[in-house]
Design a protein that fits this description.
Length: 551
């Protein structure tokens, strides 16, 4: 009997061992990740505005490709909110700043190579920034942000140590180093063609020559192909950079990224629904996004989005008059736009500084929304009334660079004309022609949007209303008082002092009305359900090297 019980126990133990072994084997195979797709297809209605050279590129999509092809000294970690702990090492492994805030020292990563095998060092950092500031392209970010206003010089301390010497402290300096415009260029592909830097040194698109069409080379990807027809992007292909400094960490996750460009949001929606692309990003209509949320074959990603605003040309009639600009601002019905165009999936905005950011105030609320009595009050002394209306043209783009621009324009026209004393004509252009019209300063009023260069209120103020830095808008606004307030805010590192200064800046913007903030939106991407690694955070950057899809 004792032997029988022993045998029984041994059988039970044996069965348990077998079960455990089987469970372990099954568990092991369940933990093995599915095979990743080597090629991921992305669809967009956006395009490269001008080029992929940081000396000129100052548009969202162009800089996103720069980010995939290059590397910065520091970067924001995925999920960043804008706090100091968000910064992570990239080409710089560590950094420090002097007590007076005038000297920033970066210790560089050693053994880093460009895609062609050339080694990176401190000289390349100095070359990159001196080149951008020297070229000083009026439509580029080095002028738009005003690098030369606070960078005095760059010193190569040693092969792998570089120092930035500032003219005065700049509270957002580290944020600026994470911005795509500060990505390091390869001197071999961004050479000087004369005795001094000139706009002719900017690297532009070269048909059939993707490597010669960009000066980058330190990023997770290289540009394999780039096709344009009649100045419009049709397809772009990125390939994993074998020399990428962080390749040992498994980046990029996807070996090949193919980007297909679609004519409008309707075509893009069809492409993602039909499975022609793995990811659709910029721009899908709000109605399509709502519908896709209930599609079991798709996944909708969302995060902070752009701010949209209205510019007015101040060098000529009718917007050379401050009262007229204020009258237009008072007549805008933000709620109607948010509810009609975006189905409530956006927020009314009353400051160029986004909601939730240091320095934001609802300053433009003092003018009201659809405040037609105030609009009439401002225009009456100037001779405008129901029988003699203020007439101007409102321009908008048609290429999907901004979400539902045509619908936005129609709602703005309707709300302005509801005042009874304003008449609006609409004019549209594709993005390339729209940009040219802006540069030629032929538009009465025009809609633009903004995605941040870096997470700081300075980036929502300086590029727009500082006299020397706002030239890329071409609306010809200038006010010495505004310039002084901005310089004080830029040079101050105390949060309370900066908040106070931006409050004064917001109030002055209402008084002068050079730009009218309209709404703050959300960013959306839609993917197949097997896609992972999408991060839509406060940086609003699109980190292609993190995205992957399983087979």
């Amino acid at each position: 009997m004792k032997d029988a019980k022993a045998v029984s126990k041994m059988v039970i133990v044996g069965v348990l061992i077998v079960v455990i072994v089987i469970a372990g084997v099954v568990g092991y195979y369940l933990t093995i990740p599915s095979k990743l797709k080597e090629t991921l297809i992305m669809g967009t209605t956006d395009s490269v505005e001008s080029c992929l050279d940081t000396a000129r590129a100052y548009d969202y999509f162009g800089l996103e490709i720069v980010q995939a092809l290059g590397s910065p000294l520091v970067a924001y970690k995925p999920g960043a909110t804008g706090v100091e702990s968000d910064f992570i090492p990239q080409l710089a492994t560590s950094w420090s700043v002097s007590d007076d805030g005038l000297h920033w020292t970066f210790n560089l990563r050693q053994g880093v190579k460009y895609d062609d095998g050339t080694e990176f060092n401190a000289t390349d950092v100095k070359y990159t920034f001196e080149r951008g500031m020297g070229i000083a392209d009026p439509d580029g970010s080095f002028v738009g942000i005003g690098y030369s206003d606070f960078i005095e010089s760059i010193t190569v301390v040693s092969t792998y140590v570089v120092e930035f010497n500032l003219k005065r402290p700049f509270g957002a300096f580290l944020s600026l180093m994470a911005y795509q415009g500060s990505y390091i260029v390869d001197p071999k592909y961004a050479p000087m063609h004369g005795t001094s830097w000139n706009v002719s040194d900017v690297v532009v698109y070269k048909d059939g020559d993707p490597r010669g069409s960009n000066p980058m080379g330190l990023g997770p990807y290289t540009l394999k192909s780039w096709t344009r027809v009649a100045g419009k992007d049709t397809e772009m292909s990125l390939q994993a950079n074998p020399n990428y400094w962080d390749a040992s960490s498994g980046y990029p996750k996807t070996k090949n990224i193919v980007i297909k460009f679609y004519a409008d949001s309707a075509d893009l929606a069809l492409a993602i629904t039909a499975g022609d692309v793995d990811v659709a990003y910029r721009q899908l209509a709000s109605t399509d996004i709502t519908s896709m949320k209930s599609n079991n074959n798709l996944k909708v990603w969302n995060g902070p989005g752009l701010i949209q605003y209205l510019c007015m040309q101040e060098k000529s009639l009718p917007f050379n008059n401050t009262k007229i600009r204020q009258a237009v601002a008072a007549a805008i019905n933000r709620t109607a736009l948010v509810q009609t165009v975006f189905q409530g999936d956006a927020e009314e905005l009353y400051s160029m500084i986004p909601i939730g950011m240091l320095g934001h105030t609802d300053a433009f609320k003092t003018l009201g929304d659809a405040n037609y009595s105030y609009t009439k009050q401002l225009l009456a002394p100037l001779g405008y009334n129901e029988n003699n209306k203020l007439v101007f043209t409102l321009w908008y783009e048609t290429s999907g660079h901004y979400p539902q621009s045509a619908q936005q324009a129609l709602v703005l026209k309707s709300s302005l004309e509801a005042s009874g004393v304003i008449s609006v004509y609409l004019e549209s252009r594709d993005w390339a022609a729209y940009r040219t019209a802006r540069q030629q300063e032929i538009m009465h009023s025009y809609i633009l949007g903004w995605y941040p260069d870096y997470i700081d209120p300075d980036d929502y103020i300086y590029p727009f209303v500082q006299s020397s830095g706002g030239s890329w808008l071409h609306q010809n606004y200038a006010n010495p008082t505004m310039d002084r307030l901005i310089e004080w805010a830029r040079g101050n590192t105390t949060e309370s002092a900066r908040a106070s200064l931006y409050g004064q800046i917001n109030d002055l913007m209402v008084q002068d009305c050079p730009i009218i903030p309209i709404y703050q939106g959300y960013a959306y991407a839609v993917s197949r359900t097997n896609v992972q690694g999408v991060y839509l955070d406060a940086t609003q950057t699109w980190r292609l090297w993190l995205i992957y899809a399983t087979e």
